[in-house]
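We emphasize that the prediction below concerns an isolated chain of 280 residues; any contacts that depend on oligomerization or on bound cofactors are therefore not represented. The input was used exactly as deposited, without trimming of termini.
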Amino acid sequence: MEVVPIFQLPSQAAFLIFIMFSVIGWCSEVLYVGIFHEHKFVNRGFLHGPLCPVYGFGGVVILLLPKDLYSTWVPLFFASMILCTIVEYFVSWLMEKMFHARWWDYSHYKLNINGRVCALNSVLFGFLGLGIIRFVYPQIIRLLNWMGSFAIAASAHIIAALLTVDVIVTVKRLVDFNTTMEKLKNFGESLSDHYGHEEWFRGTSVYEMASSVKEHAQVEWEKFSQSVLERIEQLMEKRHRNVESFINRFPTMKSIHYQKEMDELKSRMKARGVKSQVKK
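Result of the prediction step, given as a token string:
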């Protein structure tokens, strides 16, 4: 079957292809990272739904290649490898600028560029591009031809609406994520300002500082504000499930402004026996 360049397709069909590639990428991430490495299911997507949009963008970019490359092997491999690596680097940079966090970090891999991309992933992208063009994409075109224009339009509108809701909810959670980290940082600074001159005060993280205040309050409770002690009690007992969810999905995630607080949360997750590959 002749492979049709994506720019020759109707926009709604092209959108569905983007979604299908995103789902394929999500499945690959869940199988490769979640099942084979962590031996459990982890939603590896940035969104709530089974989508990894970076794979969708990568797949669409590959389909923008000249049609003559579609029937090749080696040129298509290297073109896919280079283009998808550029997409991954750009997405990493863009998300860092938007949300003040680096969601994946390949600094521990050999031949990486600023921790955003690495040679291993680039090679995998090359093979993925071959598989997409030579095997997957023709089957997707057959499926779209079988669906017909009405089903394609209806599906595209429904999925677009669901995706919009998912994006809105995810952005709200990201705002809450940054708010939570900011509160932890500010509370730690507040404790340091009030008790940093005391000999018994210790710790570099908000939880260590809070623990030292709580311990000393058992000896000289009259010297401490009840509201401060209540905030410390809430801090020690509260689970920040939203933050922990993102850490579970992206165990190498690094915060630009709140890394110390994030490392402390990772340590507490490990201490509680949370099953995740959280890394500092």
